[in-house]
Amino acid sequence: MSFRYAGADRDALAGVSVDVPAGSSLALVGHTGSGKSTLAALVARLHDPTAGRVTIDGVDVRDLDPEVLASIVGVVSQETYLVHASIRENLLLAAPEATDADLWQALAAAQVADLASLPDGLDTIVGSRGYRFSGGEQQRIAIARTILRGPRVLILDEATSALDNETERALQVALDRLVEGRTTITIAHRLSTVEGADQIVVLDDGRVVEQGRHGELLAAEGAYAGLALAA
Ligand SMILES: Nc1ncnc2c1ncn2[C@@H]1O[C@H](COP(=O)(O)OP(=O)(O)OP(=O)(O)O)[C@@H](O)[C@H]1O
Ligand SMILES: [Mg+2]
Question: Where is the ABC transporter domain (predicted)?
Fold first, then answer.
């Protein structure tokens, strides 16, 4: 599969072939500009390949109804998209039928327990004119929303900058709960994520230059071994 941005003079991805078995995890690593975000975007069909195809369970994503695709593929990135509305409304966007008990369960799994101490609880309004949640809290509320949506395929765009220890730990627990049992593609910057991945793909200049597991790639002393990953 290859992909070239409109107007670009070269491919952002060239001859990339990756198979992610259902339920397994893939970590994408590589230098800036190597094509990680582009590859992830193709799975969510933010772009279509210039050549080749992206399939889920053997079905070309172009043949899936956009709503169906949106329910299958979930994206969790640093930018969270909470709307200026109550927590309840934000969560019900993902699961209109969910009960309050379901919402609290998802929030607990996403490590947003402190919400229970807010006077308005689920009716707390998110946003500049509402309660000022920290970036980390907003991110975890968005994770709760993704838990409620329950996509089978998850794309995680890991934070590049170091978070403080407590935020990091809470976020990690939330993410661990989220990825359980799902097919996961993580744009990984941290060793802990990459070490545990079923498969690591190293991209360089739009091409797959190495592929394997942490131990074997380290032993190969190639591109992967040369990448500096945050501990
Ligand atoms: N919208 C765009 N239009 C044109 N070229 C783009 C666009 N987005 C990315 N590119 C180019 O495609 C290549 C791959 O970019 P991509 O964002 O996928 O890299 P990345 O591995 O995610 O990098 P980073 O680690 O910095 O996030 C780069 O050369 C980049 O300049
Ligand atoms: Mg990127």
Answer: 3-230
The structure tokens 């996403």 sit at 110
Q: Is the CB of 33 under 6 A from ligand 1?
A: yes
Give residue 172's pLDDT: 85
Rounded distance from Cα 6 to ligand 1 centre (Å): 12
Residues 6+ apart with CB under 8 A from 204: 30, 31, 34, 223
189 close to ligand 1 (CB < 6 Angstrom):
no
Query: How would residue 92 be classed by pLDDT, with cut points 50, 70 and 90?
Result: very high
Query: What CATH superfamily classification does 25-226 receive?
Result: P-loop containing nucleotide triphosphate hydrolases (3.40.50.300)
| Tens digits of residue pLDDT in 192-206 | 889 999 999 999 999
Distance 89 CA to ligand 1 centre (A): 34
Contact 207, 15 (CB under 8 A): yes
Pocket test for ligand 1, best of 2, 4, 5 (most atoms within 8 A of CB): 5
| Strand pairing class (73-76; 153-157) | parallel
Question: Can you give the residue ranges of every domain in the chain?
Answer: 25-226
* pLDDT tens by residue, 6-29: 999 999 999 999 999 999 999 999
